[in-house]
Amino acid sequence: MSLGNITFNQASSPSADGMIVHDVSVAIGEVGSLSTRTDADTGVITIEDSGHSFEVDDRVDLYWSGGSRRGMNVTVVAGALVTIDAGSGDDLPSALSDVTLIVPTLLDVSVLGTLVEAILLSTTQRGQIVFVGSGATEHYQKELGLAKSWEWEDGNGDLNPITGDQIEGVYVSHDGIIAATMKVGILHNNA
User: Fold this and answer.
1) What are phi and psi of 113, to 5 degrees?
2) CA separation (Å) from 92 to 39, 108, 166, 189?
3) Class of 30-102 per CATH?
4) Are 100 and 68 in contact, with CB atoms under 8 Å apart?
5) b/e for 4-26, b at 16 or more Cβ within 10 A?
6) What is the reported pLDDT for 30?
7) How confident is the model at residue 66 (pLDDT cuts 50, 70, 90)?
8) CATH number of 15-26+105-188
9) Which pTM does this prediction carry?
10) Which residue in 8, 71, 174, 185 could disulfide with 127, CB within 3.0 to 4.6 Å?
11) What is the pLDDT of residue 115?
12) Percentage of the chain surpassing pLDDT 90?
């Protein structure tokens, strides 16, 4: 990383017994508008493409300029109208805001957070990476900006964000108008 004429370098080689690596292309979501805003976490999206594939009980993420909400539930589908509810994140934007609705991709990950030595995340589009336990209970989430990455490793001064948590999957999604390459890397010890 460079700031001014100064370069900041970091080099490390953490080691552990095993690793989990995902490098996936995540398809685009559907563009639409928030036609009805019932409250901070409930509304109706009018999807521009009436041939969309959203179904009742889908887990969805919603993106808009300046905000996002993840882990929402589709409660009603009537043609181009998709009703969403619950989830976590920012309060829904004002009615008629342009939005992108996407079913996040679930990555196969099973690891006890206490055994993790390093976590590396990256995306080519603005996106969410959500670590979940059984029943899709959210344990940790990280939002990354366009073409950004993030890393944590034991000994860097920060606490392990998933210590003590049994991770059973990782959801990834993005707001781009082209597919995004999203990467999740976990270095861990065996029990």
Assistant:
1) -55, -35
2) 8, 29, 30, 40
3) mainly beta
4) no
5) eeeeeeeeeeeeeeeebeeeeeb
6) 95
7) very high
8) 2.60.120.380
9) 0.92
10) 174
11) 95
12) 84
CA 113 centroid distance within chain = 18
What are the structural domain ranges in the chain? 15-26+105-188, 30-102
The predicted pLDDT at position 13 comes to 75
Q: Is the sign of the CA dihedral 104, 99, 146, 68 positive or negative?
A: negative
pLDDT at 50 over 90: no
Do the beta carbons of residue 174 and residue 26 sit within 8 Å? yes
The rounded distance, in Å, linking the Cα atoms of 1 and 22 is 24
Tens digit of each residue's pLDDT (9 = 90 or more) over 88-120: 999 999 999 999 999 999 999 999 999 999 999
HEC letters along the chain: CEECCEECCCCCCCCCCEEEEEEEEECCCEEEEEEEEEECCEEEEEECCCCCCCCCCCEEEEEECCEEEEEEEEEEEECCEEEEECCEECCCCCCCCEEEEECCEEECCCEEHHHEEEEEEEECCCEEEEEECHHHCEEEEEEECCCEEEEEECCCCCCCCCCCCEECEEEEEECCCCCEEEEEEEEECCC
d(CA 118, CA 187): 5
